[in-house]
Write a structure and sequence with these properties.
The complex is a heterotrimer.
Chain A: H1 8-24, H2 34-40, H3 42-52, H4 57-66, H5 71-82, E1 100-105, H6 131-134, H7 176-182, H8 211-219, H9 223-234, E2 243-256, E3 265-282, E4 290-299, H10 303-315, H11 332-338, H12 341-349, H13 356-371, H14 374-377
Antiparallel strand pairs in A: 1-2, 2-3, 3-4
Helix pairs in contact in A: 2-3, 2-4, 3-4, 3-5, 4-5, 8-10, 9-10
Chain B: H1 12-27, E1 33-34, H2 48-57, E2 63-68, H3 75-88, E3 91-92, E4 101-105, E5 118-122, H4 136-144, H5 149-162, E6 173-175, E7 179-181, H6 191-194, E8 200-205, E9 210-214, E10 220-222, E11 249-253, E12 260-264, H7 267-282
Helix pairs in contact in B: 1-2
Chain C: H1 3-9, E1 22-31, E2 34-44, E3 49-53, H2 60-67, E4 75-81, E5 87-89, H3 95-104, E6 106-109, H4 113-116, H5 123-133, H6 139-152, H7 169-181, E7 187-191, H8 199-216, E8 219-224, H9 227-233, E9 236-241, E10 244-250, H10 251-256, H11 261-270
Parallel strand pairs in C: 3-8, 3-9, 6-7, 7-8
Antiparallel strand pairs in C: 1-2, 1-4, 4-5, 9-10
Helix pairs in contact in C: 5-6, 5-7, 6-7, 7-8
The chains are: A alpha+beta, B alpha/beta, C alpha/beta.
């Protein structure tokens, strides 16, 4: 006698126990602390904060630990927590121009006020597995703050450039693109659509989406997806002729203006990576030719993400700039509807949930089609065997 | 109930927002209302849309039934039922008749629903025109113009190729003579149950951020041609457990040689019939 | 004085002539600083084929796009007389009603079959879609009608379940014509219908088109740069240059005795053969 599968609840509990064991691993090995995760796997933490759109190193570290290092699962945990948080205040836009950068490079200018600063980068490492690290010995830390080539260029306070109106603070170096702006050779940062940007976690996306909504979407979008899309624009699927105008990484202050005070107060500091891309110029009979821009920003040290985002941001403006469109990275709906790894992961993996009712319908159908005489088989339901009643 | 969370998990502001979407959806049968879907602690694809709808309408006096593939004991149904038991502390049941709210994935119960009940469907892809037009801007325009000729192209192609309409589940319907709608991936066997259903039917798509509805007693017509009328599937077999000859049957492979048996997909319906039969035998 | 009275008093008002099917007045369109179309006026009578000729950039396509609702003119009106006798300005009809018109009373045949056909579904479905857009819901009847139309356009009905990409360019164009004519539109827009085809294929297609247009008494606006095509199909001819109609008259008259210097040039440069 067949007995239908039961005991779903017990099975789920058992699965959770197994998961906890697997997460812990060998109990002889000391358990990871959140400080270890946050301090030694800091780029994983940064990525989870960026795509989880919640700046909290400790919670991100917890999510990574709980997710056994599965970063998309960790992003999901952080998002599900974030959605329950009250919105207490809206911060003022962060001023990346006032950042004290720990890394700052420009590929478009050999040298510029403030200098080039490599900071903690993998860029010039030789990718040789460091077996000393395996033995537990840390490589000797390099002295920080050494300027990159060319020449000895001490990190000076920014020479205040009159054109760099947004960089009035002496704390950070002038933006590289401000020098182009002073000559009117690059477009002004394109308007994001309104002073009061939409919140894509509170309002459904509508198309065409304003740039503010697009940038929000990209900022929390999957790094791998943006990387592939950005790469595709370089290979010809929506070329934008990009140059890395400036990449900077460092700490910026976060300010709010409490209603009862009426002026801004600093509530903390976040690390961000920003990429200003300089792209092919546009112009017309009435408009002088100017370079265009793409913009990327990520929580933490997320240079690959910020650069890819800048490429995709620029590609998504093709329509508005009157360029030929049709490449995947230029297609708003395609990009914005598929950038979110929590959504994508859920929908791809839901295929493992039971679908046996749908499949039964398909089975019935294919058998009838194969029976070859469709009209005969499509007839009324077979009369049930005699003697039974419903 | 778990501490630290609001009744039924969602905050009251979010619930109000979703209720407004539900009201609008109910006022325009079959029309997909965009809503600000929240990120839920369950993955997209596991029923986040249905869960948000249920969370927004459920009250302390409600009795909740959750089914997946017709069964109350499939893992995902168990998991969602537990979610509401933990976050709302409401009564749960496996009996269709006792439930005031039924959340479902892929089936409509065999036991006829009555007035006052609400059935909440989990919807993966809400847009019936998606297969031929991937762009949201374009499909919304097609709905606005009731420009549905293209949808019949699929039926036409099916018949030309297979001699019959080759859609077994998520079979498109026209609601109240106006909006084309996906009934969610229920087998087409269940489509006729939606027509003039006395209960309110709500559909939630979390990832796609849409809610739509079929109010009680609304005509729901499955697309077809005059000479290829809509038909539901039928089985030569009967349920091996309860003997039903009129319910949707799951095919179960029982041994390595591929022998099959057929049992009701609706576990509550099946066990109810068996209980009645054993009662009758005992009498 | 009312318009009706004016008409009655007009000394040479032709008595039994039906009113025009389409009357365009003062159509104008600019793209930025470029004038694409200026002060274009003409009338189209039921069953008449009007060809619009000129070089590329003359404004032919702009005119066609504006009339068929794919673009919006800056000024002017285009009164279309519907089956019930009432006239509407199609330029101010609104999206919903214009699209309804496009799938019932009107048809568009594009130069590139990809713009007028669904390449993902069978040839038969392409033709049947027009019928289904107009409410047809009987599969067997539609199959019969589709087969009939494929035959009229010299496409073997045996191939109706094949995908359009398996067809030759000429067949794809004929399929597009079948899809357009199956619902018996009253007005068809033809945009360089023989554009991408070989000369021999062109001739056959034109011959077919001419027969069908006459047989169905469908009015048509034909945009072409090819005066031979215009001569073969059109009753009347409008010559456009720099967005304006420089000459309008009976096809043979315009081609054999061009009045405007530009038309003379056009005819001389193309027609000596």
């Amino acid at each position: 006698m067949y007995v239908a599968v039961k005991g779903g609840e017990r099975a789920i509990e058992a699965a959770h126990e197994l998961l906890a064991q697997a997460r812990r691993g060998d109990p002889q090995v000391p358990e990871l602390t959140l400080q270890q995760v946050s301090g030694q796997l800091s780029l994983a933490v940064d990525r989870v904060m960026a795509e989880g759109s919640l700046y909290d190193r400790e919670l991100a570290a917890l999510a990574i630990k709980q997710a056994r290092g599965d970063l998309i699962e960790a992003v999901f945990l952080l998002r599900a927590f974030r959605t329950t948080l009250p919105r207490l205040a809206v911060t003022r836009p962060i001023e990346t121009g006032r950042m004290a950068p720990r890394r700052r490079i420009s590929a478009t200018f050999k040298d510029l006020p403030g200098g080039q600063m490599l900071g903690p980068t993998f860029d010039y490492t030789h990718r040789l597995l460091d077996f000393a690290l395996a033995a537990g010995a840390s490589a000797a830390p390099e002295p920080a703050g050494v300027p990159a080539e060319p020449g000895p260029m001490p990190r000076a306070p920014a020479a205040v450039d009159p054109a760099a109106d947004v960089n009035g603070d002496a704390r950070g170096p002038a933006r590289a693109l401000a020098f182009l702006d002073a000559e009117d050779l690059i477009e002004r940062p394109p308007m994001t659509g309104s002073d009061d940007p939409p919140d894509i976690t509170r309002d459904p996306l509508a198309f065409p989406a304003p740039r503010a909504a697009r940038l929000q979407n990209l900022a929390r979008g999957d790094e791998g997806f943006l990387l592939a899309l950005g790469y595709s624009t370089q290979r010809g699927y929506g070329r934008t002729h990009p140059f890395a105008g400036e990449i900077r990484m460092g700490e910026v202050e976060v300010e709010i203006v409490p209603e009862e005070l009426g002026f801004a107060i600093v509530i903390g500091e976040v690390t961000v990576t920003e990429c200003d891309m300089v792209n092919q110029f546009a112009g017309s009979a009435t408009e002088p030719a100017r370079f265009t821009r793409g913009y990327g920003l990520a929580f933490g040290e997320g240079e690959r993400k910020a650069m890819a985002m800048a490429l995709v941001d620029r590609a998504l403006r093709a329509d508005q700039l009157g360029e030929d469109t049709g490449a995947p990275a230029q297609d708003q709906e395609f990009v914005l509807y598929h950038s979110d790894n929590v959504e994508a992961s859920g929908f791809v993996q839901h295929l493992k949930l039971p679908h046996y009712v749908d499949f039964q319908s398909e089975l019935n159908l294919i058998r009838r089609i194969r029976a070859g005489t469709p009209r005969a088989v499509a007839a009324e339901p077979e009369p049930a065997a005699a003697g039974e009643e419903d | 109930m778990i501490a630290g969370y609001n009744f039924a998990y969602l905050d009251e502001q979010t619930k109000r927002m979703i209720r407004r979407a539900i009201l609008k959806a109910t006022a325009i049968p079959g029309y997909q209302v965009p809503f600000a879907s929240r990120e839920m602690p369950l993955p997209y694809g596991w029923g986040t849309g249905g869960i948000q709808v249920t969370a927004s309408i459920i009250g302390r006096g409600d009795t909740l039934k959750v089914i997946d593939q017709g069964a109350d004991d499939t893992t995902n149904a168990v998991s969602i039922r537990r979610f509401f038991a933990r976050t709302a502390g409401v009564r749960t049941t496996e009996r269709t008749r006792e439930a005031s709210i039924i959340q479902t994935r892929h089936r409509i119960p065999e036991t006829p629903l009555r007035e006052g009940q609400i059935i909440v469907f989990q919807v993966p892809i809400p847009e019936p025109l998606r297969w031929l037009e991937p762009r949201e801007r374009e499909t919304r325009r097609m709905h606005a113009h009731a420009d549905y000729g293209a949808m019949y192209v699929k039926l036409y192609e099916d018949i030309a190729r297979y001699g019959r309409i080759a859609t077994g589940y998520d079979y498109p319907v026209v609601v109240n003579g106006r909006y084309l709608m996906r009934p969610s991936p229920i087998p087409k066997f269940d489509n006729p149950k939606l027509d003039r259903l006395p209960a309110l039917a709500l559909f939630g798509a979390g990832r796609e951020k849409r809610i739509y509805a079929v109010p009680p007693h609304t005509p729901v017509k499955s697309l077809d041609f005059e000479d290829h009328p809509f038909r539901v599937e039928s089985w030569r077999e009967r349920c091996a457990l309860c003997g039903s000859g009129s319910s949707f049957l799951d095919e179960i492979v029982v041994d390595d040689s591929g022998r099959r048996m057929f049992v009701c997909s609706d576990t509550d319906y099946c066990s109810g019939r068996r209980a009645k039969r054993s009662g009758a035998e005992a009498a | 004085m009312s318009d009706a009275a004016a008409l009655e008093l007009a000394p040479d008002a032709a008595p039994a002539v039906a009113p025009p099917l389409l009357a365009a007045r003062g159509l104008a369109k600019r793209y930025g600083r470029r004038t694409a179309m200026a002060d274009v006026s003409f009338e189209l009578w039921p069953g008449e084929v009007l060809a619009v000729v000129g070089e590329s950039g003359a404004g032919k396509s702009t005119l066609l796009r504006c009339l068929s609702g794919q673009d919006e003119p800056d000024a002017g009106e285009a009164m279309y007389r519907r089956l019930d006798g009432t006239a509407v300005d199609v330029l101010r009809l609104g999206d919903v009603r214009r699209r309804l018109l496009l799938r019932t009373d009107w048809g568009v045949i594009h130069q590139n079959p990809r713009d007028g056909l669904r390449f993902g579904v069978s040839a038969g479905a392409n033709v049947a879609e027009r019928l289904m857009e107009n409410g047809a819901r009987h599969y067997a009847d539609m199959r019969a009608e589709v087969a009939d139309w494929l035959m009229r356009l010299e496409i073997d009905p045996e191939r109706m379940d094949e995908l359009p990409h398996t067809f030759s360019g000429g067949m794809q164009q004929r399929l597009q014509i079948a899809r357009c004519l199956v619902t018996r539109p009253r007005l068809v827009f033809l945009d360089e219908p023989t554009g991408g085809l070989d000369v021999s294929v062109q001739a056959r297609l034109l011959d077919l088109l001419r027969t069908l247009v006459r047989e169905l008494e469908v009015a048509a606006i034909l945009v072409t740069h090819d005066l031979a095509v215009a001569r073969m199909l059109a009753d009347r001819l409008a010559v456009m240059r720099d967005g304006r109609v420089v000459e309008l008259g009976l096809t043979d008259q315009v081609l054999d005795d061009p009045q405007h210097p530009y038309t003379q040039l056009l005819v001389a440069s193309v027609l000596p053969a």
